[in-house]
Design goal:
This protein is of the alpha/beta class and 447 residues long. The protein contains 17 helices and twelve strands.
């Protein structure tokens, strides 16, 4: 796997199907001592030594000075570092993630140190090892939450229904993940954008269903399908089952069920709508229009050029990725082509299924109204995608498009050039986004 794969898939939300196997053996794994040493170096102010463990892309994205400043910010927020409380390991092939529970004076913080096959650090997250802190726009008095199950049998998924207090039936929104193995909160580092969305909307009278993604909850079984998987197994089928689940709930207005897709979820909205007759509206948050392989190449170029220069090694890897992208585009692509010869190790079945798929063009003929929202600082799905949505849907009067200055791919605020490292900073989905979604859903004409 290339440095670029690690840079895109771990510090950021990327367009990638990652099939993973998890182990949670206390203190096991080949990199536990390395991770402990890494944390101890930060405590001693030895970030210069610590960053020597970074791979090429991490070294570009996070300097020693930035890393030490981040550690200092943790101590300012949580008090002086005291000790390493515990460690455990997750295996997400080909990565090994060491979770280091760090005891500070006031709180405990979890460090996720991600090691790649070359034994270098390819990802790093810090998040409170404790309770989620709700944004100010969430009012827990106005909603309740309950566990639900999506689907049944082999692929059933656990989820959470956020339900407004009071008499229904309520309009409802279903949250559909971006790529990769995502939990129901779409957790990225210390951030939980789907939890923000669910509880923010529920505080405003809208029921919200979120659930663990199939590649997250059923990672072992999904790994068995890895060479013939498509977006239907990854995302579309479960989104349609979630619509079916809500349509049968008497507390939900079946005429006002909306599907909200983030990133990959937004890209797949036309396919989800094709399988779900009970959908009254569609919302895209940072949903792409361009082909997946183009996004991967563009994201990679962006990341390696962050410091204004491209090394010979990086250029060689860029060239290799470009060759893989050309294989995806080739009319000779078939399921006999090995996944190792394709971008990010994603199998040919996945690429073939998406061949010719144009979400913006497909959205022209949809019967449902659309709300398309985009952060203007998003480097993963860019304003070019937003422009293409706008161009394709210009003749539809029931489409609203809005871009937000200062927001990134998670629809969270930031400043300056968008960097993968900002996903390490705790934040919340902008209240402006929450309010716009709530207003749009409430004004939606029932089926």
């Amino acid at each position: 796997m290339s440095h670029f794969f690690r840079a895109i898939s771990l510090p950021a939300i990327c367009w990638l199907l990652v099939l993973s196997v998890q182990a949670a053996e206390q203190g096991s794994g080949g990199h536990v001592e390395q991770a402990r040493t890494f944390i101890e170096q930060l405590d001693r102010g030895e970030a210069v030594q610590a960053v020597r463990e970074f791979d090429a892309v991490m070294a570009k994205a996070l300097s020693a000075e930035q890393l030490q400043a981040r550690w200092g910010a943790l101590e300012q927020q949580h008090g002086a570092f005291q000790k390493i409380h515990s460690t455990r390991v997750e295996i997400k092939a080909p990565y090994e993630i060491v979770l280091v529970s760090c005891q500070f004076e006031k709180n405990r913080v979890m460090a996720r140190v991600v090691y790649a096959e070359n034994n270098q650090i390819s990802g790093l997250f810090f998040k409170p090892d404790g309770e989620y802190q709700s944004p100010a726009y969430v009012d827990p008095r106005k909603f309740t939450e309950e566990p639900v199950v999506i689907g049944k049998g082999l692929w059933e998924l656990p989820g959470t229904l956020s339900l407004p207090v009071g008499e229904g039936a309520f309009p409802a929104v279903i949250l559909v993940h971006g790529s990769g193995p995502q939990d129901r909160n779409e957790t990225v580092g210390p951030n939980q954008p789907f939890r923000d969305l669910a509880q923010g909307l529920a505080s405003r009278g809208i029921a919200v269903l979120r659930y663990d993604k199939r590649t997250y909850h059923h990672r072992l079984k999904m790994a068995l399908l890895s060479q013939r998987i498509t977006v239907r197994e990854e995302t579309v089928e479960d989104a349609a089952l979630a619509v079916q689940r809500l349509a049968g709930d008497p507390r939900i207005d079946p005429r006002r069920i909306v599907v909200l897709g983030h990133s990959l979820g937004g890209y797949l909205l036309p396919r989800i709508a094709a399988e779900s007759k009970d959908v009254a509206g569609l919302i895209s948050l940072a949903g792409s229009v361009r082909p997946l392989e183009d996004l991967i190449l563009d994201q990679t170029r962006y990341l390696v050029q962050l410091d204004g220069k491209v090394t010979s090694e990086e250029q060689a890897q860029l060239d290799a990725l470009a060759v893989q992208v050309e294989r995806v585009r080739s009319t000779d692509l078939s399921e006999s082509v090995s996944a190792v010869d394709l971008p990010l190790g994603v199998p040919a079945s996945y690429w073939l299924d998406l061949r010719g798929y144009q979400p913006a063009q497909a959205a022209r003929s949809l019967s449902q109204p659309l709300l398309i929202l985009q952060g203007e600082r998003d480097y993963q799905v860019t304003m070019e995608d937003f422009r293409l949505w706008k161009e394709a849907l210009a003749e539809r009067e029931d489409v609203r498009l809005h871009s937000y200055p200062g927001l990134n791919h998670l629809l969270m605020a930031g400043e300056g050039k968008s960097l993968p490292t900002e996903y390490l900073v705790p934040g919340h989905v902008s209240e402006k986004v929450i309010q716009e979604i709530a207003d749009w859903v409430k004004a939606l004409r029932p089926l």
